[in-house]
Amino acid sequence: MKPGGPSLPALGLPADFRAFHQLYRAGYIRYAELHLGSRADAEEAVDLAFEQLMLAWQTVLRQPVPEAYAWRVVKNRTIDHARARGRRPVVVDVAAFETLSLRHALDPISELEESLTLYQAIGALPERQRDVMLLRYALGYATKETARLMGITEAGVRSTIRHALRRLRQAFGLEEGEDDARLAE
Protein backbone atom coordinates (compact mmCIF):
# COMPACT_ATOMS: atom_id res chain seq x y z
CA MET A 1 0.00 0.00 0.00
CA LYS A 2 1.52 3.29 -1.07
CA PRO A 3 0.23 6.38 0.80
CA GLY A 4 1.33 8.67 -2.01
CA GLY A 5 -0.72 6.82 -4.62
CA PRO A 6 -3.87 8.11 -6.22
CA SER A 7 -6.08 5.76 -4.21
CA LEU A 8 -5.19 7.35 -0.86
CA PRO A 9 -8.73 8.63 -0.07
CA ALA A 10 -10.27 5.32 -1.22
CA LEU A 11 -8.24 3.35 1.31
CA GLY A 12 -10.43 4.53 4.16
CA LEU A 13 -7.55 6.30 5.86
CA PRO A 14 -8.40 8.87 8.51
CA ALA A 15 -8.94 12.36 7.13
CA ASP A 16 -6.33 13.81 9.51
CA PHE A 17 -3.73 11.34 8.21
CA ARG A 18 -4.56 12.20 4.60
CA ALA A 19 -4.27 15.92 5.41
CA PHE A 20 -0.93 15.36 7.19
CA HIS A 21 0.31 13.36 4.23
CA GLN A 22 -0.70 16.06 1.77
CA LEU A 23 0.86 18.83 3.86
CA TYR A 24 4.24 17.20 4.55
CA ARG A 25 5.04 14.68 1.80
CA ALA A 26 6.57 17.13 -0.70
CA GLY A 27 8.90 18.69 1.89
CA TYR A 28 9.95 15.30 3.20
CA ILE A 29 10.74 14.14 -0.33
CA ARG A 30 12.91 17.21 -1.00
CA TYR A 31 14.85 16.51 2.21
CA ALA A 32 15.25 12.80 1.43
CA GLU A 33 16.30 13.53 -2.15
CA LEU A 34 19.04 15.82 -0.88
CA HIS A 35 20.40 12.88 1.14
CA LEU A 36 19.75 10.05 -1.30
CA GLY A 37 20.57 11.80 -4.57
CA SER A 38 17.58 10.22 -6.30
CA ARG A 39 13.98 11.37 -6.54
CA ALA A 40 12.73 7.78 -6.88
CA ASP A 41 14.67 6.63 -3.81
CA ALA A 42 13.45 9.67 -1.88
CA GLU A 43 9.82 8.94 -2.77
CA GLU A 44 10.25 5.30 -1.77
CA ALA A 45 11.85 6.18 1.58
CA VAL A 46 9.20 8.80 2.38
CA ASP A 47 6.36 6.49 1.35
CA LEU A 48 7.77 3.82 3.67
CA ALA A 49 7.90 6.43 6.44
CA PHE A 50 4.26 7.32 5.80
CA GLU A 51 3.30 3.64 5.91
CA GLN A 52 5.00 3.41 9.30
CA LEU A 53 3.23 6.57 10.46
CA MET A 54 -0.11 5.30 9.18
CA LEU A 55 0.23 2.03 11.09
CA ALA A 56 0.98 3.95 14.29
CA TRP A 57 -1.25 6.95 13.57
CA GLN A 58 -3.02 7.00 16.94
CA THR A 59 0.35 6.84 18.69
CA VAL A 60 1.61 9.66 16.47
CA LEU A 61 -1.39 11.82 17.43
CA ARG A 62 -0.72 11.24 21.13
CA GLN A 63 2.80 12.66 20.83
CA PRO A 64 3.38 16.15 22.27
CA VAL A 65 4.40 17.31 18.78
CA PRO A 66 3.30 14.81 16.09
CA GLU A 67 5.32 16.67 13.44
CA ALA A 68 8.55 16.16 15.39
CA TYR A 69 7.78 12.44 15.73
CA ALA A 70 7.06 12.19 11.99
CA TRP A 71 10.28 14.08 11.20
CA ARG A 72 12.31 11.49 13.13
CA VAL A 73 10.56 8.65 11.28
CA VAL A 74 11.30 10.26 7.90
CA LYS A 75 14.94 10.87 8.79
CA ASN A 76 15.40 7.30 10.04
CA ARG A 77 13.76 5.84 6.93
CA THR A 78 16.00 8.00 4.75
CA ILE A 79 19.10 6.81 6.59
CA ASP A 80 17.91 3.18 6.43
CA HIS A 81 17.24 3.54 2.71
CA ALA A 82 20.76 4.85 2.07
CA ARG A 83 22.35 2.09 4.15
CA ALA A 84 20.29 -0.63 2.45
CA ARG A 85 21.70 0.52 -0.87
CA GLY A 86 25.26 0.76 0.46
CA ARG A 87 25.37 4.51 -0.02
CA ARG A 88 26.71 7.34 2.01
CA PRO A 89 24.79 10.61 2.19
CA VAL A 90 25.25 12.68 -0.96
CA VAL A 91 24.46 16.10 0.51
CA VAL A 92 28.03 17.36 0.22
CA ASP A 93 28.50 15.97 -3.28
CA VAL A 94 25.29 17.37 -4.71
CA ALA A 95 25.05 20.67 -2.88
CA ALA A 96 28.54 21.77 -3.82
CA PHE A 97 27.87 21.38 -7.51
CA GLU A 98 24.44 23.01 -7.34
CA THR A 99 25.70 26.19 -5.73
CA LEU A 100 24.26 29.22 -7.53
CA SER A 101 27.47 31.17 -7.05
CA LEU A 102 29.36 28.66 -9.24
CA ARG A 103 27.34 29.74 -12.27
CA HIS A 104 28.53 33.33 -11.99
CA ALA A 105 31.95 32.92 -10.37
CA LEU A 106 35.09 34.36 -11.86
CA ASP A 107 37.02 31.45 -10.33
CA PRO A 108 34.61 28.47 -10.22
CA ILE A 109 37.25 26.05 -8.89
CA SER A 110 37.93 28.27 -5.89
CA GLU A 111 34.17 28.67 -5.34
CA LEU A 112 33.75 24.90 -5.55
CA GLU A 113 36.47 24.33 -2.95
CA GLU A 114 34.82 26.84 -0.62
CA SER A 115 31.42 25.27 -1.20
CA LEU A 116 32.72 21.77 -0.48
CA THR A 117 34.42 22.99 2.68
CA LEU A 118 31.24 24.70 3.83
CA TYR A 119 29.06 21.64 3.23
CA GLN A 120 31.59 19.43 4.98
CA ALA A 121 31.48 21.80 7.96
CA ILE A 122 27.67 21.74 7.88
CA GLY A 123 27.84 17.94 7.77
CA ALA A 124 29.88 18.00 10.97
CA LEU A 125 27.26 20.02 12.87
CA PRO A 126 25.06 18.34 15.47
CA GLU A 127 22.05 16.70 13.84
CA ARG A 128 19.42 19.33 14.63
CA GLN A 129 21.68 22.19 13.53
CA ARG A 130 22.55 20.35 10.32
CA ASP A 131 18.87 19.69 9.55
CA VAL A 132 17.88 23.31 10.12
CA MET A 133 20.74 24.62 7.98
CA LEU A 134 19.95 22.21 5.15
CA LEU A 135 16.23 22.97 5.19
CA ARG A 136 16.76 26.74 5.41
CA TYR A 137 19.70 27.25 3.09
CA ALA A 138 20.20 24.20 0.87
CA LEU A 139 16.48 23.68 0.24
CA GLY A 140 15.42 27.30 0.69
CA TYR A 141 12.61 26.83 3.19
CA ALA A 142 11.56 29.88 5.21
CA THR A 143 11.90 29.78 8.99
CA LYS A 144 8.18 29.07 9.35
CA GLU A 145 8.28 26.16 6.89
CA THR A 146 11.41 24.73 8.51
CA ALA A 147 9.74 24.87 11.91
CA ARG A 148 6.60 23.18 10.56
CA LEU A 149 8.53 20.37 8.85
CA MET A 150 10.68 19.63 11.89
CA GLY A 151 7.93 20.10 14.45
CA ILE A 152 9.75 22.84 16.34
CA THR A 153 8.98 26.51 16.96
CA GLU A 154 10.15 29.34 14.74
CA ALA A 155 12.13 30.65 17.70
CA GLY A 156 13.73 27.20 17.94
CA VAL A 157 14.77 27.42 14.28
CA ARG A 158 16.28 30.89 14.75
CA SER A 159 18.12 29.81 17.90
CA THR A 160 19.43 26.68 16.20
CA ILE A 161 20.69 28.76 13.27
CA ARG A 162 22.53 31.11 15.64
CA HIS A 163 24.23 28.15 17.33
CA ALA A 164 25.07 26.56 13.97
CA LEU A 165 26.53 29.82 12.69
CA ARG A 166 28.65 30.12 15.82
CA ARG A 167 30.02 26.61 15.24
CA LEU A 168 30.66 27.31 11.56
CA ARG A 169 32.47 30.56 12.39
CA GLN A 170 34.65 28.63 14.84
CA ALA A 171 35.35 25.95 12.22
CA PHE A 172 36.50 28.61 9.76
CA GLY A 173 38.25 30.79 12.35
CA LEU A 174 35.98 33.77 11.64
CA GLU A 175 34.74 36.53 13.89
CA GLU A 176 31.05 37.09 14.51
CA GLY A 177 29.66 38.69 11.36
CA GLU A 178 27.01 41.27 10.66
CA ASP A 179 25.20 38.88 8.30
CA ASP A 180 24.42 36.40 11.08
CA ALA A 181 21.25 38.21 12.14
CA ARG A 182 19.99 38.27 8.54
CA LEU A 183 20.67 34.55 8.09
CA ALA A 184 18.85 33.68 11.32
CA GLU A 185 15.62 35.43 10.24
Question: What does the model show?
Answer:
The protein is mostly helical and 185 residues long. It contains eleven helices and no strands. The protein has helices spanning 15-36, 39-55, 57-61, 66-84, 91-97, 100-104, 108-123, 127-138, 143-150, 154-172, 180-183. Helix 1 packs across helix 4 and helix 2 (39-55) packs across helix 4. 26% of the residues are buried. Residues 1-7 and 92-97 have low confidence and may be disordered.
Class from secondary-structure proportions: mainly alpha
Spatial gap, N to C terminus: 40 Å
| Count of runs of 4 or more consecutive helical residues | 11
The radius of gyration is 18 Å
Question: Order of SSEs, N→C?
Answer: HHHHHHHHHHH
**Shape descriptor:** globular
- Give start-end ranges of low-pLDDT stretches: 1-7, 92-97
Instruction: Give the number of DSSP strands.
Output: 0
Q: Could you tell me the strand content as a percent range? A: under 5%
The proportion of residues forming helix, as a percent range, comes to over 70%
Largest sheet: none
- Would you tell me the overall average pLDDT? 81
Secondary structure blueprint with pairings:
Elements: H1 15-36, H2 39-55, H3 57-61, H4 66-84, H5 91-97, H6 100-104, H7 108-123, H8 127-138, H9 143-150, H10 154-172, H11 180-183
